[in-house]
Amino acid sequence: MSETYVGLGSRLIYCLSTDDVEAINRRRIEPSEIHAGLMTGSWPRGAQAHVGPPVHAGEYYPLDVVVINQSAEKTFVGGKVWLPGSDMLYIINAEEGDEAGKWLTAEAYSQKVKSVLAEQENKESADAPTNLE
After folding, report:
1. Residue 60 burial (C-beta neighbours within 10 Å; 0-12, 13-18, 19+)
2. Is 50 exposed, middle or buried (0-12, 13-18, 19+ CB in 10 A)?
3. I need a labelling partner for 119 at 20 to 30 A (CA). Which of 9, 71, 100, 111 fits?
4. Contact yes or no for 57/120 (Cβ under 8 A)
5. In 3D, which of 61, 81, 69, 59 has the Cα closest to residue 6?
6. In sequence order, which residues have a C-beta less than 8 Å from that of residue 19 and are 6 or more positions away?
């Protein structure tokens, strides 16, 4: 797949899987719930919480590589996925690919985005009414 060097500290792009999303969303809480708990005394003062918007399978987020396991054919990485909110996801042994639970290089992700945008633009121009008057 990629000919880009992947080393410790590399920044890759990770695609969330269904299992990732279930784990992330299960441990998150809305700020309004914390506020209500503080007002009623059911939330301990000083307690920390994972706060952030819900995430969805197929969404892409930055991944900082902290472990590399290389075989003859594949590079598996472990690292921290930066999520929107106050928490992170730690992944173990993700392989390269354009599917949920896998990672792309920044260059491959950029190409994917350009391709999707070009497809949308082509579809919009094909669907646009033509003025033949």
Report:
1. middle
2. middle
3. 100
4. no
5. 69
6. 101
Q: Quick one: three-class SS letters along 52-76? A: CCCCCCCCEEEEEEEEEEECCCCEE
User: What burial class does residue 94 get, using C-beta atoms within 10 Å of its C-beta: 0-12 exposed, 13-18 middle, 19+ buried?
Assistant: buried
Residue 129, both tokens = 């009414």
Q: What is the pLDDT of residue 64?
A: 97
* The predicted structure's pLDDT at residue 97: 94
- In degrees, rounded to 5, the angle at the alpha carbon of residue 129 between the alpha carbons of residues 125 and 133 is 130
**Cα dihedral 112→114→116→122 (10° resolution):** -150
**Residue 43 neighbours by CB under 8 Å, 6+ apart:** 34, 36, 37
